[in-house]
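Following up on my earlier thread - several people asked me to post the actual chain instead of describing it. Fair enough. Here it is, all 134 residues.
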Amino acid sequence: MGEEMPEIVALMKLALQQAKIAFYSLEVISCGRNRSNETRNATRHAEMEAIDVLLEEWKEKGLTKHEVVEMFSKCYLYVTCEPCIMCASVLSFIGIKEVYYGCANDKIGGCGSILFLTNACFLHLIEQKDRGTN
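Reply from S.P.:
Thanks for posting it. Predicted structure:
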């Protein structure tokens, strides 16, 4: 872990400059900023903006759903502030590998400050059964 610390610190400094940035293989592959006020759309947090950029790029490249899942599973997200409950849920759902943030979000934090939504217990798989059998 000690060898990785300077690298992590450098990446967090970059995140603080650009607001929200997704990393894959230590390369910036997407970035976003909070556009909720600008767009008058409460879902346009920086995490969602960065994810949408990736989804559009991967769609244009013709990636399959399986390949998209594989790509997200290798991504790291560096953000200035703890993702909110909505964003933490999305990050968990799409399978982002790790999230690093600079400060807690004591109002709507979804990575531990208010709720902890970034582990498998919040991903409920619903088993479908034939209604005719019990």
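Residues 62 and 68 are 10 Å apart (CA to CA). That should answer part of your original question.
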